[in-house]
Amino acid sequence: MTDIKYMILISRQGKVRLVRWYHTFTAKEESKMLKELAAIVLSRKARMCNILEYHDHKVVYKRYASLYFVCGINADSDNELLTLEIIHRFVEIMDTYFNNVCELDIIFNFAKAYDILNEMLMCDGSLVETSKQEIIKHITHMDAVETNDNLNRVFA
Amino acid sequence: MTSAFAPSTEEVMQRLRPFGLFFEKSLKDLIKGIRAHSETPEQLGQFLSQALSECREEVNSAEFNLKTNAVLKLTYLEMYGYDMSWANFHILEVMSSNKIQQKRVGYLAASQSFYKDSDILMLATNLLKKDLKYDGLNDKVKMGIALSGLSTMVTSSLARDLCDDLISMLSSNRPYIRKKAIAALFKVFLDFPEALRDNFESFVARLEDEDSSVVSATISVICELSKKNPVPFIPLSPLFYEMLINIDNNWIIIRLLKLFTNLSQVESKLKPKLLPKILELMDLTSATSVIYESINCIVKGGMLGDTDLDTAMNCLEQITKFCNSNDPNLRYVSVVLFYKIGKINTEFISEYDDLVILLLKDVDISIRSRALELLEGAANEDNLPKTVKILLKQFIEKNTVPLSRSEKSSGTMDQFKTIEVDMPAFYKVKMAFTILKICSMNSYANLVDFEWYITVLRDLCFVSMELKDENLGRKLGEEWRNILVKVPEMRGKAMGAVLELVSSNDISTYLPSVLKECIWCIGEYSNLVDNGDDLITLLMRVKFTAADIGQILIHALLKIFSNWCNNRGSAEPIEVKRLVEQLITFLETYSLSKFVEVQERSYEYLEFLKLCDESIDVNIQELPLLITDVLPSLFNSYELNPISLGTQKRLQSNVTIDLETPFLSESDLQNLLNRSEYKLEAGENIPENLSDDSDSSIFSQHDDLHSPDLLKEEEYTRVDTKRQSDEIQRKIDRQTNPFYLDDGDDARVIRQKSNSLVDLEPEESPGVSNAIRLSKDERIPVENPQKKNKKKKRLQVLADETVPDTHPSTESDEHHDNNSATSGNTFSNKINLRNRSKLEGFDFASNKSLTPLSPDSTGEAQADLDKLRAKFANQSLEDSAQDEEVIVIKRKKPRKSKKSKKKPKDKENSANDKQDTHQNAGEV
User: Fold this and answer.
1) Number of structural domains in chain B
2) Which pTM value belongs to this model?
3) Are residues B109 and B74 in the same domain?
4) Could you read off the pLDDT of B704-713 as tens digits, one per residue?
5) Which domain holds residue B725?
6) CA-CA distance, B786 to A19, in Å (whole number)?
7) Chain A residues with beta carbon closer than 8 angstroms to that of B80
8) Which of A20, A47, A104 would best serve as a mutation to test chain B binding (most B beta carbons within 10 A)?
9) What whole-number distance in Å separates Cα of residue A75 and Cα of residue B585?
10) Chief localization class (chain A) (predicted)?
11) Looking at the domain that runs over A4-155, which CATH code has it been given?
């Protein structure tokens, strides 16, 4: 449904906080895109639209607090508005999970953030789960299993 | 003292590790370290490489917690651009741990890194198989992790191996597993289409799953699959339609709309059923993304024909709402939609020109830039001046947009604040191109006031200086040329502006690419200039560096010279001689040019001018025939008319030129030679080493027929080069030929005619450097009072000349696409957006050919399948992953080359539309 090419979280200082490629790019392309996208997105002014044309595809970004969520989508077939909603959904879920998520949460628990993303988006960047409750339920379940696992090992 | 019961330090550490208490550098330490060391890049780099080498050691450790921790750190460092594929084997070890936490880290690392390395996947197959097995404890989580991981790294061999496991999971009693299996199956289907064919029923049965997440995932997957090949899913349309009516989840509705977009592209019968429903949906919903997707579906699903006015209006009404919204995203989307609808039929959007003009003033450049593309469809006779004025203003003025448009602006201050919009160069270039395009479209169909256009062009040239865009300069030059050639009544005016450009130092420094055509124009229409001698001096003063300008300049100088000497009839031979000498000195410098073409041309004219010089010396009282007759005949034989693009090519392929039959038969030649020999013997001064006998023979043949000044000319033949004898011969030919005799006069008549068309006073061309005067014809009264009326009157625009079209299909494309040379209006009701649509066509086709999916089991599909099988059979392990859509696990190179192969194909499509290509270049 939407064909997300990548999802990148960039801090206001231009640091990459999370990056997930759904299409294959060479390492060179990846680093070039990260650099360019950070520069472009950070230079956008407040009242500009959240959609950019970048090389052969479009970039949809949205700023939440100090983080920019940047998505690359297919220029032709994708729904820009929906992509914004996906980003928003991702932020909502992290917000619920971390309880008022901030940049530091994502930095220190980047693996968790990836897990949430994995639950939400399919391997090729299509949305697979839209329900917030479902995702939270599974992530917390996994966490519980993990803790159990660890406790078992300590008491063993 | 250690007690026997107290645990050893080793054991304590071991036990605390699971709680995140590490004694090695933990992830937390790493992150904190990075933050502490990020003052200078060197410091950070040093810290990171140190951390990396620690990880290298830790990852080798036999201790699993340590190893896991190292892998996690590496995953983090990967975000900083540090490759971690070297650790793939260790990642695999971590994946195989039976601790969920470690497994999770392992799979995360794998999904970030494995797709870069294929070999590791061979090793991973068994592990995945094992992890996908249901074995009681924590199976759901474990399987979930494995399935998520799997979907990021499927290759076709992996797909084949795991397909059955995944299919059996579709009937798992846990919805989570079913959902994950469906997501993972998507990749499997792409790589291994047989799986879809064989399990189609059980797969689509999930559409009716009791769990909504599973249904949603199934639709997602079907929607994605239908992008590659919609055919197998068409029989399911009734089911999808039911869902569209009954489901109220917007996420799913949007996916269904996308799915229908894909389906109706191949099945036109869907339209009558779907369209009312979609329109209804559009009216009822309040979600903008649903409205957007509905319109998308209508437009892209081919449900909007170029005559469906009602549907179009329905959509446009919604788009207008978007357009007036405060949300810049909606405005952006509205421009995109406008564009798509306009592409179907420009009539649809032609009423919305006010809206488009509004968008041109948007705060956001990307919206403005999209709106520019719309102008082609929205511009008309009435709004053209207004539109161009807006655009021109954006070049020079600071662009500020009031914030007050937003209602929810936080402070009261904001209401009075404005935002300054910076105009990137690419946007300015695009604006300039758009102005040229909308004005010159369809042979200036929208343009009423050419005087105004000339000032616009002039301004455009000056504002374009800072952009330093060579293509733009060239385009502007071409525009000048087109005006001069195609609009005879405007020649005087345009000449004034062109002269100003050429004499401007700034232009020749910053925008030299415009000069080539300008100089050509000056040369070609130099009969409009009174004091050609000053013009020549001016042109010789300007320093031109580019080769192409040099080539044009040499011709232009001679044309001006020719016109100046002959137009007024009063050029004093003394003055002429002075000018000739100046020209000779000038050309001598050019004859040393490093550009061959420039060198050749300057030598040609140099020799000619030297002859002129000498002939003036012979008779200082009047101008020699060489200047009065020979020189003009070089340039003025025919009136120059615009021809449409491609005509030349067609002529070349059409006309059969007989290159075989000799002009003279053997006997004719012999006769001539005999006669010339006779002449040579009888004639006085003709040198024996004359290179071309036949030439001189013709010359001498006419010799006795002719006037005394011809005899004068004849003296030159003594020292003549072959070329000159050619010219003389041609001249004689003309004088003897009744048609040519008339022609000479004709040329003059035409000149006067074009002069008389120009009703200008000197002050009407203010920009002209005062040295150069445009001639005006006294006989025609200057009709100033009529100027007002003239504004409404359409000037004549010369139509392009064509030859009867014998190859209608082959050349018609490039024909219509070039705005400057198009006269045909066949395409006038379509926006010329060709290179946009190529993307659409391209995507679908390439995907289809790359990943054909087997439709379920119809007979027709069987053939496809056999082909597929053959393809798969032939595939060696190395190049199994060439699908663009798949995360490529194997080498990158095959994919790259594929991409680059596609590019040229696109170019071909767009190559015939230069204008759009430029625009595109701007965007890209």
Assistant:
1) 3
2) 0.67
3) yes
4) 444 444 434 4
5) 669-675+683-758
6) 69
7) 16
8) A47
9) 59
10) membrane
11) 3.30.450.60
